[in-house]
Specification:
The structure is a single chain. The protein has two helices and five strands. The protein is of the alpha+beta class and 97 residues long. The chain has a five-stranded mixed sheet with strand order 2-1-5-3-4, with no helix packed on it. It is globular, with a radius of gyration of 12 Å. Bound molecules: FE2/S2 (inorganic) cluster. The site of FE2/S2 (inorganic) cluster (FES) has 12 residues, from loops.
């Protein structure tokens, strides 16, 4: 299981491989917001402060969407496009900016 810390809500949760971050947010009641849920609206942008290596790689659509932001996108991900891809690890995520 991968331990995910949702910093803004002080939620710590253990998540199995392949689970989506959208599922995690919904199940834990985190205040992370979602809009389109398909990588178009940027509502769910969040910063992965550590543990990026335990998530799936960005696809072309996510990369293009994040390029619209006029800020350093290092560490940013669209939570609706993220899945856990590891059996163990630690991920810290902040959001709501
Ligand atoms: S909810 Fe729209 S990009 Fe993630």
């Amino acid at each position: 299981m991968v331990n995910i810390f949702l910093e803004n809500d002080n939620i710590n949760v253990k998540v199995p491989n392949t689970k989506s971050l959208r599922y995690v947010a919904t199940k834990t009641g985190a205040s992370m917001e979602f809009g389109c849920r398909v990588g178009d609206c940027l509502t769910c942008v969040a910063r992965v402060k550590s543990g990026m290596e335990f998530l799936n790689k960005k696809n072309d659509k996510e990369i293009k969407a994040l390029e619209i932001l006029a800020m350093n996108v290092e560490g940013l991900r669209l939570m609706c496009q993220c899945n856990v891809e590891a059996d163990e690890g630690e991920i810290v995520i902040s959001y709501g900016f």
